[in-house]
Amino acid sequence: MSDFAELLRRYRTARSLTQEELATRARITQKAVGALERGERRRPYPHTVRALADALGLDDDERARLVAAVPPPEASTAGHRTKVPAPVGDPANGRLPAPAAPVIGRDDQVDAIVGVLAEPSCSVLTLTGPGGVGKTTLALLVAAAAREHFPAGTVLVELADVRSAADVVPAIATALGVPDSGTADRVGAVASFLGNRELLLVLDNVEHVLPCAPAVATLVSVCPALTILATGRVPMRIRAEREMRVAPLDHDMSVRLFRERMSARGGTVADDQGDAPVIAQLCRHADGLPLALELAATAAARIGPRTLLQTMELPSDIAPHDLPVRQRSITATLDWSVRLLSEPARSLLARLSVCVGGFTWADAHAVSGLSAASATRALTELVEHSLVIRVVDGGGGDRFRLLEPVRQHSGERLEHGQADEARAGLAGAVLATARALVDDLHGSGQVTALHRLEAGLGNLRVTLDWLIEHDRADDATELLWLVWLHLAIRGHGREGSSWATRLNARPMTRQSRTRLLVAWAGLEHLAAPADACRHSREALELATGDDDEVLATQAATLAASTALFSQDLSLARELLGEANRRADALGDPYWIAHARMATTQIALLAGSAPAIEQAAREAERATRRVGSAFEVGAALNLRAVAAQLGDRNDEAAALLAEAIDLAVAAVNSWTLTYMLSTLAVVAVRLGDPDAGARLFGAWSAYADAHGVVEDFPTTQELVAGDIDRARRDLGAASFDVAWRSGREAGMAELVELARKVRDQAVR
């Protein structure tokens, strides 16, 4: 074990920290800490040593000992290699520059890239990524870290100022110090000079000289010991090449880099949390691009983060003067990238700026104004140039997105007429997606449909706004009617209601008016049940007059369910009878299931134990036939309430644990509120008032966050009584602590708590 490894382990254990805790404090990975303590990684980067020292809280003497324990760079002594004299340009002669500032968030990538370069089969590795993501910086870190694998040294060839592909090989020759013999075969001359030297050649910025690729391929084919590390916004597309994409920084690393750069530029970075939300928002706007973060941090050091967030205008002279001209602003960086595109790709990039939060291939085709084949070629080119990033949505499909600085840059270059064409195309695509997913949303494919709709939420928002502003109320209403369930389940009910309010003042067809009222009732079902009941009864009257059985069934079922909150049992039963009759006649399993759940709710309100049990079991059977996670979870919650009333708390606990698992799968923040309150009652009655108090706290937080009434009339009395019981059992002070803990609990903690209550019940 090295001195550094032993010292690091000793400092960590003296402070009673685990490797995981130290990694979290230092903002590096646990794997990296383990490798350092085992001596597998012998020479950490200076910024890593500083981060570890800060995380350990070392005093000046301890810090100095830790820094001194890092072994100096040494020449390779690998037995399987033959030491070859280094050519001119070897880093030992000072020709390889170091990064100009501390590098944050790249340690694991450096290790991974060095590992790939060390593989015998790797002869060309290209780091690709968008402009400003830090490819050159990463390549310099890799070159320094990989020295021991390349006895003949490392040579950097900067190609940004090379104007044509024909000048690339001469630039390589110059960097290597190859004598100019006057021969026309420069590739041959370089190959003869290199011979069998095991050398790493770093070609920085190849994207604008891609026709040099055949010469590079020839060079590595005749020099088998040569390894090339290239950087570019696109790969070179040669058979010997391997590509690794350089991703933007994650949010935590972005914030850390922003604060470090702001401090380095003389800005005051407050230790309190006052500026934290502002800095977080600025980092989200930069979308993880180190160049954008550095420029924004420099501006924030001058005018303050809050002022910068208000203006979002960067002064023109903030960039460090040692940056290349093309990187002294995000605009210049992206202009450089866009100039390399074909015209169709350039046009598509501008039109894609209307998409918010990402897009599918269908969205891209819809906004492009191109044929399907041309749109595919253009999108492929944008992905290859790292201006569009491919991601995977929660539903398992392919999605793409523009980094936010790229989207802003592209939007500024979109002409007004093209913008309207692109937004109209996007509206068509969003509507088509909603129509295609509606059956899944109301069936066994619900979880996937919810994830796909949530992934497209940004485009749904801009589409609804655009349709309303352009007097397309019928289309906007159809879209809201198709997706209201998604909005409600995923906690966007207030936003959905605001669109319904805006649409209510617009002229539209009678069918659209009925759809609007149904959607509005659904969105306000748990937030404003009296209003929801009024909307659904009006929709029922319109649909009945139009003989629209689908809308009439939906309206009648929502009316029956929301009438509960008025506690007018006669009205609720009248509406329920119509809901069941219409749902059975229509034969739609989804609305039959909802009618059966409404039947259970009214049975609970009426208070007949045999009727409650029978209705709850029938509701569960109906929802399981549908197979939708949201409805099954809601029915299980009703069965749990019925079990509670029968003093079968063990059964209720098991039902609620399954219901909460389904809520997690669907990311259901809507009716989870009621599951938490029911489970809290079970916990108290099973003799765990602490768990009950925490669950009641979570119940209260979810009700506040999602604007839902705190409980159904059928369970209000249960909840109120058991809150008082938990407070008495724990004492007021302990109850308040547990309540606050529950309000702050995350989903994972709540799932664990539900399983704990279930396990207590079965013991």
From TrEMBL:
<dbReference type="InterPro" id="IPR027417">
    <property type="entry name" value="P-loop_NTPase"/>
</dbReference>
<dbReference type="InterPro" id="IPR001387">
    <property type="entry name" value="Cro/C1-type_HTH"/>
</dbReference>
<feature type="domain" description="HTH cro/C1-type">
    <location>
        <begin position="8"/>
        <end position="63"/>
    </location>
</feature>
<dbReference type="Pfam" id="PF13401">
    <property type="entry name" value="AAA_22"/>
</dbReference>
<dbReference type="Pfam" id="PF13560">
    <property type="entry name" value="HTH_31"/>
</dbReference>
<dbReference type="Pfam" id="PF25872">
    <property type="entry name" value="HTH_77"/>
</dbReference>
<protein>
    <submittedName>
        <fullName>XRE family transcriptional regulator</fullName>
    </submittedName>
</protein>
<dbReference type="InterPro" id="IPR049945">
    <property type="entry name" value="AAA_22"/>
</dbReference>
<dbReference type="InterPro" id="IPR010982">
    <property type="entry name" value="Lambda_DNA-bd_dom_sf"/>
</dbReference>
<feature type="region of interest" description="Disordered">
    <location>
        <begin position="72"/>
        <end position="93"/>
    </location>
</feature>
<dbReference type="InterPro" id="IPR058852">
    <property type="entry name" value="HTH_77"/>
</dbReference>
